[in-house]
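Bit of a strange request maybe. I'm writing a small parser for structure token strings and I need a real example to test against, not something I typed by hand. Could someone generate the tokens for this chain?
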Amino acid sequence: MRMMRDVHTCLLDDHCVTVEKILAERSLNPVFQPIMDFRANTYLGYEGLIRGPYGTHLQRPDRLLQESRLLGLGAEMEILCLETLLEKYAALTIPGRLFLNISPSLLLAPYLQEGHFLSLIKAVNLTPSRIVFELTENQQITDLPGLLEAIAQYRQQGFQ
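Reply from user aminoacidic:
Good idea to test on real output. This should exercise your parser:
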């Protein structure tokens, strides 16, 4: 049987990475995968992907997000992922659209709907028309009318 480390002990250990430590240190690694339109031989944009700290058990995004959700920190981690991707994308001055994976529950979060996401975009000098939301499939949609309303609201703000 595997022994679980105490979170407080783990935070003090440089070799042990926890969700809490990643959130506190903002230690995520953004990766941008090109999306091509082969008919027009052009880039449509880039899909923003996230990796946890390299060489750790939380490097893979599925593990990172799953462990975050288990600890009740899923929304916080997902927001940090979005912030990290937006900041790096803008800093690299990559042309085209940025495709972001986002869960239905986060898209419905009042925190983002009340303008936080729009302010993040503006803070890094991007425009909403360059951002494309892709709904993740890892979560069941429990409020379809609410989700459709949220999508309409984001579209009104210029998001794709």
